[in-house]
Amino acid sequence: MGEGIAQPEDQRFMAAAIRLSRWHTGRTATNPSVGCVIVRDGVIVGRAVTALGGRPHAEPQALAEAGELARGAAAYVTLEPCSHHGKTPPCAEALIAYGVSRIVISVTDPDIRVSGRGISMLRDAGIEVTTGVLEEEGRRSLAGYLTRQTKNRPYVTLKLAVSADGMIGREGAGQVAITGPQARAQVQALRAETDAILVGIGTAIADDPLLTVRTPGLEAQSPIRIVLDPFLALPLTSKLVETAREVPVIVVACEEVSPLAADAEGLPPSVLPDISPTRGEIGKWRAPNSQAHSSSPATEDVEQGAVPQPISPLVGEMPGRAEGGTSPADMESRRTALEAAGVEIVYCNPYHPEVLLPALATRGISSLLVEGGAKTARLFLEAGLVDRIQLYQSPIVIGEGGIESPLDTTDIPSGFAHRGTYVFGADRLDEYEREN
């Protein structure tokens, strides 16, 4: 059976499946959060979302809820049903076994183990398959998974809160509340559906942020916290270090401070240990040094607009480096103390996001929220590695001593489309997405 013809009700039921899929965004490990609804005679008789942790998948759960009513029914799924035997049987087989007569799919799975095969399996079984229904909305709901599959890196959201005079904070003032409680609640919701959140060491020291989800009931959904900290300057008394055993903290340090750096000195890049990270081994991985970047696999995958050459260290984001360098003994002491507190240290040039992001993807991180500060935001923007910009604008005025925002609504980089404007109390949110 070939491509099915879209029916008038398809968009309505697919919209319901997409809404359902968002329930577990960021909570399904390396698997995508997929929504599935089973519809018989215009009535939903089964519905499910990928379970927490990634299993079971949405389709078998929705089919089990529908039971005998699934026979002859239509199934609406946000992502092509899997066709391969992994830790669970293929979802395509379950749909066939339950006797579903029609399947409507929003997005085809780019995973090479699935792509098109699930659809073929269903059609070979005589099931009518319709694809591409609300595909743009479906892709947006699956953005993290799709980006990791197709670009070998997480989907990156840059969030900025900007005052009426174009500032994101005040020098020496620590955290400054720019937006009101309604906007801040939205940011907490964004954190809850994101795998990891990243700040520069300047922000980590100046603001001493916690970077967790503080919305009651959602605390357990706090993202992994990442700090770009080239010379291990993160204070042991910081909130991040003090809570590292409760919510993971990763410090990204320069290769030069790695315990292996001295051993590797003088060796060609091709013989450095642990060049290719595997899932769960990012803490052991040392990225290729700057001389190797022109030929490293991670650099070859940099998308159009990215900056493959080394990016200069960010002035102001590097406190803790003593004049003339930091002694090996002092660095070893800092490293030991941070690791004893539960902090994971990754040796990968913090100013090479085109190398860091694929390394994060190897451990299953599909979405990353860049939340500060101005220099770190500029780093990711200039590298062409931001997929979505959330720009909050507040009526408050910072005044003298303000830290200028790296962008505002008048200078959004080319290649981004404005997706919408939303109002939260006195604050306004403009959202932009990179056009692929």
From TrEMBL:
One of its GO terms (molecular function) is diaminohydroxyphosphoribosylaminopyrimidine deaminase activity. Its EC number is 1.1.1.193, 3.5.4.26. Transmembrane segments: none annotated. Residues 288-298 have a biased composition (Polar residues). In the C-terminal section; belongs to the HTP reductase family. In the N-terminal section; belongs to the cytidine and deoxycytidylate deaminase family. This is Riboflavin biosynthesis protein RibD. GO terms for biological process: riboflavin biosynthetic process. Converts 2,5-diamino-6-(ribosylamino)-4(3h)-pyrimidinone 5'-phosphate into 5-amino-6-(ribosylamino)-2,4(1h,3h)-pyrimidinedione 5'-phosphate. The gene is ribD. The keyword Disulfide bond does not apply. It comes from Rhizobium fabae. Keywords: Hydrolase, Metal-binding, Multifunctional enzyme, NADP, Oxidoreductase, Riboflavin biosynthesis, Zinc. InterPro entries: APOBEC/CMP_deaminase_Zn-bd (IPR016192), CMP_dCMP_dom (IPR002125), Cytidine_deaminase-like (IPR016193), DHFR-like_dom_sf (IPR024072), Eubact_RibD (IPR004794), RibDG_C (IPR002734), Riboflavin_Biosynth_HTPR (IPR050765).
